[in-house]
Amino acid sequence: MRVPADDNLTAYADLHADTVAVLTEWAATSPAAAAARDRTLDLLAAGPVAMSRGHRPGHVTASALVLDATGARVLLCLHGKFRQWVQLGGHCEPGDRTLAGAALREATEESGITGLRIDPVPIDVDIHPVSCQGGSLHHDVRFAVLAAPGAVERVSDESAALGWFPPHRLPEPLAGGTVQLVAPALAALRRAPLRPVP
């Protein structure tokens, strides 16, 4: 497979190593997540290229379900391109050193909220087709993120809207796979305090 010349794959080496370690050690939250984890580990056997959006067979992405300080609401964005409500997240970047760090960066950029805290243990892995590179797969590793009390969101260029919703009353149309993040995110919040830096 030919990798785009502008893709500096050595910049993904630390992120690739972290992702392999995180997924190898992870106790999956469901049978579907376990199967997706195993497929993602197979993808990662290709090396750091699997972290880059230029890898057409598929690439790892990072996303986050943001909870308010009490866990009573979740923050979702109405995605500007496919017009569905979804958790925050996206492609890994060459400057990312850890997968949790990539998810936290994406959540911060897309929510406009500073001081978010993350649990570095994934809550889900999901694989879905996307239009990248004319057709590819996102191997999306998802994390729980906590906003500070009084956090105020700000819509980014990638979102049509942002909104806080009770976990039992999520908006429609909702992207497939988003609802399955609520229970493990709330469990992560109960399990351990979320951290400011991965």
UniProtKB/TrEMBL annotation:
Pfam families: NUDIX (PF00293)
Keyword Repeat in annotation: no
InterPro entries in alphabetical order: NUDIX_hydrolase-like_dom_sf, NUDIX_hydrolase_dom
Keyword Ligase tagged: no
UniProt keywords, alphabetically: Hydrolase
The Nudix hydrolase domain, residue ranges: 57-187
GO molecular function terms attached to this record: hydrolase activity
UniProt similarity note: Belongs to the Nudix hydrolase family.
Protein name as annotated: NUDIX hydrolase
Organism lineage string: Bacteria, Bacillati, Actinomycetota, Actinomycetes, Micromonosporales
